[in-house]
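Lecture 7, part B: from sequences to assemblies.

Below are the input chains for today's worked example.
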Amino acid sequence: MEFTRRETLALGAGAALMTVLPFRASAAAAEDVINEFTGGAAVADAGIDLTAPEIAENGNTVPVSVSAEGATSILLLATGNPTPGVATFNFGPLAGAQSASTRIRLAGTQDVVAIAKLADGSFARASKTVKVTIGGCGG
Amino acid sequence: MKFKALTAAVALFAAPMAFAGGADDDNLVINGDLEITTKAAAPQHLDGVLDEVISGWHFRSDETQALEMDDFDNPGMIFVDQAVDQWNTAEGSEGKSCADCHGAPEDMAGVKAVYPKWNEAAGEVRTLQMQMNDCRTNRMGADAWKYDAGDAINMVALMSSVSRGMPVNVATDGPAAELWQKGKDLYYTRTGQLELSCANCHEDNYGNYIRADHLSQGQINGFPAYRLKNAKLNGVHSRFKGCVRDTRAETYSPGSEEFIALELYVASRGNGLSVEGPSVRN
Amino acid sequence: MASGVKPRVKVPKKAAAGDVITIKSLISHKMESGQRKDGSGNLIPRSIINRFTCDFNGQNVIDVTLEPAISTNPYFEFEAQVPEAGEFKFTWYDDDGDVYEETKSIAV
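Predicted structure of the full complex, as structure tokens:
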């Protein structure tokens, strides 16, 4: 089978779209989850800290910390995973600080996003790009 | 021209700094008080080959290194906990547990450091797992554990954990010498379609990158190793198998004579480093 | 996943009333994501710990909802106030309905 130049270009574009789409879909899914959490309210950029390594040695176990003073809850998302949800931390009356650390799975290089619901009902967002490296010969 | 040559020379010097995945200079102290020797003068049999032996811990990122610096943060210690339960559980026709003969796991401190070891009565070099299975089948009347499988590897991790900080001191001479030589020969034998020996990566190229990963010296003082990659404890023989497979070769099996020989030889390359397992690696 | 699940928690044995302490928790669990396929290409069903809670003398410290993106052997580190002597209660909820519990006392 032979392709004309135009057909080849169209195929290429299709392939490019295919590669981009899953990420798009996941990012859109992440926005949906965020909207559900915030009820569509405005989200500020300050008031929350998100700590994650710039480069993760292995996507299977990536240490992540979130902290937002006075928050009632913090939503943690991995925007490039097949499903964006990671965890929701709800802080009770005896929380010593509105902070928590855990270890998460990242399917590849992507943005990790944390959204805090603050005591006054407003929302704050932080995000960090984590590069996930491929392994050695074993992958 | 002169300037250009100088720039080139600087670039040559700078390049390894910028791109090499070499060993770092951090210190490994576990739980704030257990000092681990992670760099040591190479044992005599490595004269002319290596000056210094370096634990794989130094080739990992700060985040991965930190996981090993506290027993609570180290996921490998979950399996040590499970092995403690196993240690105290009576099994087999004799109704005996490990504890019935050996006391507390801590009483076994130092054992891991000298294995694999020649067993005079059996007339063979034994790995720790072989010795455990001898106990299980002959003294307890229980089934032998499958090599590198869960129960066995957990118990090796427990034995290792109580020897942490003690120097690896595997005998290479006397009756063990023959198998040690066989292990050494295997270490330098190229295998697979890629025609790579252990030495090609772990002796000639440690500190360099292999894709995005750092090549270590392939020391096994930290085994069993909890790998982030498969989130479980990995035995030495299973790791050997993975390496040989990656050279695109048919591999030997965990527990085979070849891997016993290789374990003896590779362990002896780390003589002087501390027993470090269960370690945390990529 | 009812077998081989072992919770571990690290809580200081003593604190002064009103202190804020750091707590670490770890439980051995595969956290099967529901995204992986087995050798014959069939999807392995999801089986995770979906909730973790910590309470002190009946009052909540933290209540976490876990998704499949939490790593194998889930680990959490967080801070708690200690208003008085008492008992921390930790609870992990498994997809299969199992509940794992652990308690730790603290003196002031």
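Note for the exam: Chain C has a mean pLDDT of 93. Keep this in mind when comparing with the next example.
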